[in-house]
Amino acid sequence: MGSYGKLAKRALDTEMPVMVKMQELLRGAKNAMSLAQGVVYWQPPKQALDKVKELVWEPSISRYGADEGMSSLREALLKKLREENKLYKSSVVVTSGANQAFVDLVLTLCDAGDKVVMFAPYYFNAYMSFQMTGVTDILVGPGDPETLHPDADWLEKTLSETKPTPKLVTVVNPGNPSGTYIPEPLLKRISDICKQAGSWLVVDNTYEYFMFDGLKHTCIEGDHIVNIFSFSKAYGMMGWRVGYIAYPSDVEGFTEQLLKVQDNIPICASIISQHLALYSLEMGPEWVREHVKSLVKNREIVLEALSPLGDSSVKGGEGAIYLWAKLPDKFINDFEVVRWLANKHGVAVIPGSACGCPGNLRISFGGLTESDCRAAAERLKGGLEELVKDGMVP
Ligand SMILES: Cc1ncc(COP(=O)(O)O)c(C=O)c1O
């Protein structure tokens, strides 16, 4: 025992999480500023945090709760789903964040060996969740070269011609890593194609409130559709770990199978975190929208910093907290560029290769206040100017 060969192939054959690689890189690059991690700079609402402080001695906080989540929180979420997302026939299970929700769904809906579909550039953690559960036949569809929207024609052809038919299709709206928003007609078309083929559609709505330029996020509902949501970014609750799944109430057995998985991973989401989620929800979506508004300036600052790459190289960013930028052709090894930017210019971004698209960068504009974002963007611009002009000069 004790050899590398004894470790599980399911783990060995799964990509390394890019954030772990980035954390290592940042430890080596002293004082680097991060435009890498997908986080927001704000904390949860103060009123909600104050109320939660009062609760710590309550015995129920330290006990297990219902697997599906606290009933008061679930009721509030069902109301929110009806009023804001127009989801009327969905049931809710509260999870320890949207990532855990996704693993729950892969284990509930897919078997090892099933084919599944994602679109490039894809959300790396979703890709890894498939890999580590034995769902290794991952078909990655193209995005439109201009808009980065998922290519629905490709999906239609792939779902009708691939045998066995892919079990599940997943999209993120608006997207991580691109910040691309999927317009409602396209989302509906994707849904119709999945329904016709008999495939599940899982939509990750982690950034539902993060919409810019007057665009409006929409959800869709159906017996083949599952929606995922998160408190992490909207309410600055990354470390509290709360998300939820809205799944079709009419599908027989869904709840029972989902709760088997839920009971074996977190049992229940942290109880104190669920209370914070409920108090935060009471602040209403306006609280979130006000905070999201403050990111418009950050996006503008980062856009300007990317200008050395040329306007046509920068895409996405209509939603979420990301911009997506293509490096000049000769820099296909984007991790080298990322390392160089961190070590020489003191700024960290994510390599596109982690999302299935080498030669690109994902830049996050959510994690820094405007003045810090400006400082980080200045470093990024300096680095990109040098990269384009002279290459990666040591
Ligand atoms: C698309 C997407 N889904 C899920 C998550 C993870 O969210 P949570 O903190 O709720 O697990 C992230 C975080 O970056 C994300 O970007």
UniProtKB/TrEMBL annotation:
Alphabetical UniProt keywords: Aminotransferase, Pyridoxal phosphate, Transferase
Q: Which domain of life is it from?
A: Eukaryota
Q: Which residues form the Aminotransferase class I/classII large domain?
A: 32-380
Question: Can you tell me which family this protein belongs to?
Answer: Belongs to the class-I pyridoxal-phosphate-dependent aminotransferase family.
Entry's Gene Ontology BP terms: amino acid metabolic process
Which CDD domains does the protein's record reference? AAT_like
Q: Which cofactor does it need?
A: pyridoxal 5'-phosphate
Descriptive protein name? Aminotransferase class I/classII large domain-containing protein
Instruction: Mention any Pfam family matching this sequence.
Output: Aminotran_1_2
Under Gene Ontology molecular function, one entry of this record is: pyridoxal phosphate binding
